[in-house]
């Protein structure tokens, strides 16, 4: 199969609020007030968990179909621990991002424990977002500024 | 500073569509029709890019403030290449997730090129989502199934 290219375009509405466009869809990201935001939407690290959950849902259903069991529904609880010290430029030995992400898959299904263990391992190895979190992903940042007049 | 815990709860609406709850906020994830979905929302890997953009926006404004320049607005274009072969269980030597993520930061500001280079490097090192993408993130998957009757 050949590569697919996915794209988004985003624009700040204020220092913490951003509107994101992906194809014909839009979503808004913000920060809660205690992280300096205007609390109008979920925040970036919550969207990261949500993206991961959405990917696990797609993979969970796809692989259940391949394995021939009935997956009636899938609930996912997810949590991660993050020290905001690095983000705020405070001295810390902690990393900037999540130190760990814990995922509980709650399938409603007719599969036995052994089948579900194989299902889980297949999901973990084939889920794109899981791969980008668990392994190194090359990121290239470029800046193209538009200059405005220096304020007096 | 002490760790913060972020959480989401998600529930499938169909095999590709998932509703995600984070605090009081909700968002929906789906897949386009050509990836087997019902095309009602952005897909997981688009949300991953959006989460990253939202985090870069917060960091960009925070660090511009620390550096003392005016950041009037920030636009971000982002794209990534992904081979869906692994996802679909096809033979491939490619990884499951994005092979690379390209980010264009488009600040409207009064900073010179050297300042913007330092700004970019500080963002890259302090942005939580950037850290989770660029470096290894431990992920723990657990399964807790609810059994339903086997279909005849």
Please, what is the CATH homologous superfamily of the largest domain in chain A? Answer: K homology (KH) domain
Number of helices of chain A: 3
CATH class membership of the largest domain in chain A? Alpha Beta
Task: Categorize the overall geometry of chain A.
Answer: globular
**Strands in their spatial order, largest beta sheet of chain A:** 1-2-3
- Structural class call of chain A reads alpha+beta
Q: Please mark out the parts of chain A with pLDDT under 50 across 5 or more consecutive residues, or reply none.
A: none
Number of domains of chain A: 2
Under the CATH scheme, which architecture of the largest domain in chain A would be assigned? 2-Layer Sandwich
Kindly list the characteristics that best describe this protein:
homodimer; 152 residues; alpha+beta; N-terminal domain of TfIIb; GMP Synthetase, Chain A, domain 3; 2 domains; 3-stranded antiparallel β-sheet; two-stranded antiparallel ribbon
Write the layout of secondary structure elements.
The structure is a homodimer of 152-residue chains.
Chain A: E1 4-12, E2 18-22, E3 25-29, H1 44-67, E4 71-82, E5 100-109, H2 113-126, H3 128-134, E6 139-143, E7 146-147
Antiparallel strand pairs in A: 1-2, 2-3, 4-5
Helix pairs in contact in A: 1-2
């Amino acid at each position: 199969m050949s590569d697919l290219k996915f794209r988004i375009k985003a624009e700040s509405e204020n220092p913490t609020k951003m509107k994101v466009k992906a194809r014909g869809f839009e979503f808004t990201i913000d920060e809660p007030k205690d992280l300096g935001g205007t609390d109008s939407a979920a925040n970036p690290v919550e969207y990261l968990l949500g993206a991961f959950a959405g990917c696990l849902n797609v993979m969970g259903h796809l692989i259940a179909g391949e394995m021939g069991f009935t997956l009636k529904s899938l609930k996912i609880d997810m949590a991660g621990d993050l020290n905001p010290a690095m983000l705020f430029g405070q001295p810390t030995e902690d990393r900037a991002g999540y130190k760990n992400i814990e995922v509980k898959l709650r399938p409603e299904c007719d599969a036995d424990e052994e089948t579900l263990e194989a299902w889980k391992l297949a999901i973990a190895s084939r889920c794109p977002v899981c791969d980008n979190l668990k392994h190194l992903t090359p990121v290239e940042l470029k800046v193209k500024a538009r200059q405005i007049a220096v304020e007096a």
